Amino acid sequence: MGAEQQCDDMEVAFSDSEAFRSVQHVLQSVRMDPFLIDLRDKEQYDILLCAVDSTTRRSSDDQAMLATTLRALSEAVSKIDIMYHHALLHNIFTMSIWYYNRDTRDALLDLIIRLSAVADQYLRECLQMLVNNFTPPGPLVPQMEKRVSDDKRKEIYSQLHESLKMISDTVPLAPRVLKDIINRSMPKLFDNKVKMVSFVECMLGLGTERLGDLIGTSLLEKVVDLLTELDVNITWEDILQEEHSKGIFEMELEDLAGDVDKFGQETEVLFGGNVCAEKLDGLMVVVCKHLKSCAEHGCLKREFDILKTIFRKGVLKVHKSKFAQFIMFYACSLDPEICGLDFALFLTDIFTKKEDDAIARMSAVSYVGSYLSRARFISADTVVAILKRLVDWCIDHCERQKKKHTRTKNPVEHQIFYASCQAVMYVLCFRLRSIMDYPNLRSQVFKMNIRSILMDPLEPLKVCLPSIVNEFLRQAKAARLFNASVDLELEDRIDSDLSKAFGGVNRLDMFFPFDPYLLKKSDSYIRPNFEFWSLVKTTYSDDEGDELGDFDAPGMNVDSLDDNFDIELNSDDDDIEYTMNKMSITPHRSFYHPMAMSGDSGLSMPARIRPSVSPPS
Q: InterPro entries given for it (predicted)?
């Protein structure tokens, strides 16, 4: 092919073969002391620099000329010398492929691939150039925000991935150097959303190539770190001050008439600005898409195993995290039988074993409780199996305490025990009705001897969150599993002095990591598999809202209660006011979650996020 270039009023016509000979001659002619270079050769070199000027915006004809020049440079790579051609290399390494058509991009990337193979010369610069192109240049950001160039974006990512793969296949050192470059180039907290999303999307695409086997763990770890950093910068102080007296189940949703109905405007007051939430939302979409692609290509388990390690190291004990942990939730939903079960066992193992510190174990059991309660894809038999392990651990703890000469109800000393008791009750608030529908599972629950741990002298019913205790006791009584009531003075309290004590400085008594997910765009990945309290069927109400009949509980005496257990009984079982309107999160009709509404209601998600984590320290 041929093309024409105009630079500084000088026209030069090239065919491919002529271009190669000309470029080779120009490169060779300036490989000497600048004072010795012939002026005509210097002029030709300046024309070459102009031809590959990274700041020039080109027409289609100009791009054809550029492609010809780049192909000629590829053939003459051996003549390029950093000492004499520094300006030329600078132009090449600062070019953005986002401005060019497919043919020009191919020519540029081929030159980069060939330069990377020059021994001990340009590998780092070539890889840095490719990583720089993970994100579009500033002037193209508005187009990316409007999503008018999705096809081109995906095409560019594919070309970048292929180029990096070819370099890694050719240069053994490349993956290690690339890993370091990506680490240094990762978006920072205050970078704009488009840069963050584009970089992470392109970077995660490397995980589907062979290159992912070499640096995949590092890539995911950096992404999770970024998600977590954004997450913890979304704060809750105002909400916590406002809702200190509300129950856990009331906090899930509430009527927010009067708030603005768009995500950014709604959250601005709560977040002190909506920037972090919007960035996090966009990144969560990218990560969920990546995990879905892994599932479709049969490599989800590999990614999940990497995520488990990252989660344990960097997320488990980050109690201010509200959304980042949902990447685990979504990964599990894509493969409930393997990943879903694995995650439940993984968390339970952390809790039951003594390898980790108390905070890690309390965090793990909080995750177990929240996960089993909220994950629709987890079967009832799995829930029962995990509950049995938690209850067995609690029974062993109580037995160990009985052997001690002095035994005190110290919330701090027994905080792991109380956390486990609370997790058991919380799960049963959500899942007891569904468990009761299966005779074999119902029988297993009744054999767990839950009553013995709740009636233990350590008195978990007095220490755990009152709102959870009340709801559990009501459902347990209706199911004929257990019968007791707490002092009604506590029923509207979200916490108590005793729960604060066992929760510690991190307030793990109020840590429910899989509370409702309220990031607007990425919500569509979580919602189909998430259990909302407003949709939970309880044991004390049938579909018409009436009390259920006999659950046929084996050997259950509904009036039994330990004489030494001094919790005040509430015998008024017909008190209509003691309903889910007071105990639950069921909202006014205008703010039901979309899943609970009929198709064309046109309702949006609640405007305000209900935290269950502690105030920032």
A: RNA_pol_I_trans_ini_fac_RRN3
